[in-house]
């Protein structure tokens, strides 16, 4: 038995004209995009940088998928929309699990390079804001944070005026005979979603008559999964920050843990949670 295996004759070796793995992925750019700022350079800063860079790459894919979901819902293409939501859910699980890697950074280790971060903060992630906008948590005030990043501001401005995934799902339901109240279909989509009690009976009918409304029922549960995953991500973020810096203020000026804890009260699809209280209760 050999400890090595032969290189097969058919394996491409000449990349003067052939496209290589590294060229296709632009690995030179990616692998040289980590620039620690601590002086002297601290060993653990590379972990901190890579954690956030990889998170941004996954957020980019979530945005890509959710925009496709919007397009599919608008064209009544529910099956590919559900496929997109399923992919997003897997990405969310990966993002959540990544916090366990950053949690290996002890308070003492982080303190040795934290001051070099200046005012940079995850709060300034425009892609995170884009995901929130796509899911309905819109806030026009966020645009001004990116006045010095025209492309980021343009993306958020575009998504501010675009129906959210929930908006498009409700429009889909209306087109398929479900009694969505007209004011909801005509609402100003630049505003953050607010709870509409008139939707709860509609969702109750979908849930209690699931066999008749299976596709709508399945989509409701996919959205609940997506929101739950988002909340788990937020919670792991909060706990990682808490174990690393305690209750210090964030580098970007936020209150830190308290600010992150307040986000746990935010919800994208409140009616899909409210309906659970009504199911099985006599009308």
TrEMBL record:
Pathway: Amino-acid degradation; L-tryptophan degradation via kynurenine pathway; L-kynurenine from L-tryptophan: step 1/2
UniProt xrefs under InterPro entries: Trp/Indoleamine_2_3_dOase-like (IPR037217), Trp_2_3_dOase (IPR004981)
GO molecular function, one term: L-tryptophan 2,3-dioxygenase activity
GO-annotated biological processes: L-tryptophan catabolic process to acetyl-CoA; L-tryptophan catabolic process to kynurenine
Pfam families referenced in this protein's UniProt entry, alphabetically: Trp_dioxygenase
Cofactor(s) required for function per UniProt: heme
Residues that, per the record, bind substrate: 110, 114, 251
Keywords (A to Z) from UniProt: Dioxygenase, Heme, Iron, Metal-binding, Oxidoreductase, Tryptophan catabolism
Assigned EC number: 1.13.11.11
Domain of life: Bacteria
Binding annotation for heme: 237
Substrates-to-products reaction catalysed: L-tryptophan + O2 = N-formyl-L-kynurenine
Record note on cofactor: Binds 1 heme group per subunit.
EC class: oxidoreductase
Cleaved signal peptide residues: none
UniProt family annotation: Belongs to the tryptophan 2,3-dioxygenase family.
Assembly notes: Homotetramer.
Biological role: Heme-dependent dioxygenase that catalyzes the oxidative cleavage of the L-tryptophan (L-Trp) pyrrole ring and converts L-tryptophan to N-formyl-L-kynurenine. Catalyzes the oxidative cleavage of the indole moiety.
Classification via HAMAP family: T23O
Protein's name according to its UniProt entry: Tryptophan 2,3-dioxygenase
Record lineage: Bacteria, Bacillati, Actinomycetota, Actinomycetes, Micromonosporales
């Amino acid at each position: 038995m050999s400890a090595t295996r032969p290189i097969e004759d058919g394996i491409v070796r000449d990349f003067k004209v052939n496209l290589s793995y590294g060229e296709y992925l632009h690995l030179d750019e990616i692998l040289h995009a980590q620039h620690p700022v601590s002086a002297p350079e601290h060993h653990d800063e590379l972990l901190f940088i890579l954690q956030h860079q990889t998170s941004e790459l996954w957020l980019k894919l979530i945005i890509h998928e959710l925009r496709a979901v919007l397009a599919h819902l608008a064209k009544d293409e529910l099956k590919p929309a559900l496929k997109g939501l399923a992919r997003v859910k897997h990405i969310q699980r990966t993002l959540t699990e990544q916090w366990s890697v950053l949690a290996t950074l002890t308070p003492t280790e982080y303190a040795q390079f934290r001051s070099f971060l200046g005012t940079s903060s995850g709060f300034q992630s425009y892609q995170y804001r884009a995901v929130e906008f796509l899911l309905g948590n819109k806030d026009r005030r966020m645009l001004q944070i990116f006045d010095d990043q025209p492309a980021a501001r343009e993306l958020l401005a575009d998504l501010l005026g675009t129906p959210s995934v929930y908006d498009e799902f409700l429009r889909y339901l209306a087109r398929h005979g479900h009694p969505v109240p007209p004011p909801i279909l005509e609402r100003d989509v630049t505003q953050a979603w607010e709870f509409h009690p008139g939707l709860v009976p509609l969702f109750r009918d979908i849930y209690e008559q699931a066999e008749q409304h299976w596709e709508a029922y399945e989509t409701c549960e996919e959205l609940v999964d997506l929101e739950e995953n988002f909340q788990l991500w937020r919670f792991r973020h909060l706990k990682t920050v808490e174990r690393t810096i305690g209750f210090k203020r964030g580098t970007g000026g936020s209150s830190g843990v308290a600010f992150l804890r307040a986000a746990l009260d935010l919800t994208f699809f409140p009616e899909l949670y409210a309906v659970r209280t009504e199911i099985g209760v006599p009308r």
